[in-house]
Amino acid sequence: HGVKLTERDIIWVPGAVEVPLMTQQLARQQYDAVITFAAVIKGETGHYDFVCQQVSDGCQAVSLKFNVPVIFGVLTTYTLEQAVARVGGAKGHHGIESADAAIEMVTLMRQNAVAPTAV
Q1: Is there a contact between 36 and 75 (Cβ–Cβ < 8 Å)?
Q2: 47 is catalytic
Q3: pLDDT tens digit string along 62-109?
Q4: Whole-angstrom distance, CA of residue 82 vs CA of residue 67
Q5: What is the Cα–Cα distance from 75 to 2, expressed in whole angstroms?
Q6: Most CB atoms closer than 10 Å: which of 21, 26, 59, 97?
Q7: What predicted TM-score, i.e. pTM, was given to this entire model?
Q8: Catalytic hit among 1, 47, 93, 94
């Protein structure tokens, strides 16, 4: 679709819980959309549930606060095999789907932009 990314546009964070904070930093900049990628794989403890909820809630909050589409490309799976199947395996490619969603949301946002009104 003609989107050109540089190394500066791709940010690695140490864990999934850190995704919303970095997403917020990017949403403050001149990005039309932010796509998040991570894989949270369920382990033997309830930690998985807390992580998934924090990341999901945090990304949604950033999107609504900054009026920037935040595409939730975070995989929440029970096994590594399920995650791999979703990044080019038997279940498609979640990354491509997320990029397509970002383009669609940016297009929709531009088509439906409302000019600010004087108060």
Answers
A1: no
A2: yes
A3: 999 999 999 999 999 999 999 999 998 888 888 899 999 999 999 999
A4: 32
A5: 26
A6: 59
A7: 0.85
A8: 47
Q: Which two tokens stand for residue 95?
A: 């990354």
Sequence-ordered list of residues with C-beta below 8 angstroms from that of 20, at least 6 positions apart, any chain: 54, 55, 57, 58, 59, 61, 62
Residue 35 half-sphere exposure toward CB, CA atoms < 13 A: 19
Please, what's the b/e burial string for 67-106 (b: 16 or more CB within 10 A of its CB; e: otherwise)? Answer: ebbbbbbbbbbeeeebbebbbeeeeeebeeebbebbbebb
Tokens of residue 7, six digits: 């190394």
